[in-house]
Amino acid sequence: MTRPPIPEPLGVPIYDNHTHLEIKDGEHFTYADALRAAEQAGVAGVIQVGGDVESSQWSAALAAQDARVLAAVAIHPNEAPGYASADTLFDALATIDELAAQPRVRAVGETGLDFFRTGDDGRRAQFESFEGHIDIAKRHGIALQIHDRDAHDEVVETLLRVGAPETTVFHCFSGDEHLARVAAEHGWYLSFAGTVTFSNAKNLHAALQVADRSRILVETDAPFLTPAPFRGRPNSPYLTPLTVRFMAERLGVDADQLAAETAENTLRAYGSWD
Predict the structure, then answer these.
(1) At what angle do helices 53-65 and 89-100 cross, to 10 degrees?
(2) At what angle do helices 255-270 and 240-251 cross, to 10 degrees?
(3) Radius of gyration (Cα) for the chain, nearest Å?
(4) Fewer CB within 10 Å, N- or C-terminus of the chain?
(5) Could you read off the pLDDT of 177-203 as tens digits, one per residue?
């Protein structure tokens, strides 16, 4: 499938707050190619995100050697039941804890709750894993990146019950205006992916309007969720400007202004890439 063209860079550097470069999408497009294309599109840095022990180790190693990359490490909520059934969840969390101490690992994620792909029998493991990750993020003083699918109320309840980390990010925000207001009340960040550009994403369009602008981030979640007008084609960090431009149009602000704001928010949440 043909890749979308590299868009014109915005007037200020921006960041992809969540991507999966370890997932090879096509025979001839490597993570190195993705990072080069991102630079051409004015994307100054990415947060490379793990979802199990192996991808978290890979993410931390890449961040340690490439100045364009910071890492997030975690056991994805849909992976947690498998670790629990093998009686290795706590060992996996211990590895995530060790990785979280590395200087270029700036987030614990993606973790959270997913009631779409995991049934009732896996929910206990998801809650145990989620709470374990929250503890790791707080102890290391780094951000928490949340995966929340069909579990908005339970995610919020968990954060309020055990105490959210100072920097808490709803990755690929999928909520509505109500959840956006709850996040604003607590100072949580909302990271919008290409889904916000979809014409049928009325909940996201409404949420964007009421979101705290000082807590808005942008991401690709590549290789998934390619923004319009290229939905269904391969995604990559270099397409981040498309989402920024769409969001700016929806908000009625200049695209470079929103780019600068989201970049400032990103650096506040995760620290400098330098």
Answers:
(1) 10
(2) 120
(3) 17
(4) C
(5) 999 999 999 999 999 999 999 999 999
Q: What is the pLDDT of residues 59-88, one digit of tens each?
A: 999 999 999 999 999 999 999 999 999 999
For residues 15 and 38, give the distance between their C-alpha atoms in angstroms, rounded to a whole number: 9
Question: What mean pLDDT, rounded, does the chain reach?
Answer: 97
Helix (H, G, I), strand (E, B) or coil at 235: coil
Residue type, 14: I
Q: Please check the confidence at residue 176 and state whether its pLDDT lies above 90.
A: yes
Yes or no: say if 129 and 147 are a contact pair by the CB < 8 Å rule: no
CA distance linking residue 57 with residue 72, whole number of Å? 10
pLDDT at 29 over 90: no
pLDDT at 28 over 80: no
Residue carrying the six token digits 């009686």? 87
Q: What is the pLDDT of residue 27?
A: 63
Residue 98 CA neighbour count, 13 Å, CB half:
10
CA–CA separation, 188 vs 166, rounded Å? 8
Closest CA to 190 of 148, 252, 154: 148
**Residue 149 to residue 7: CA distance in whole angstroms:** 30
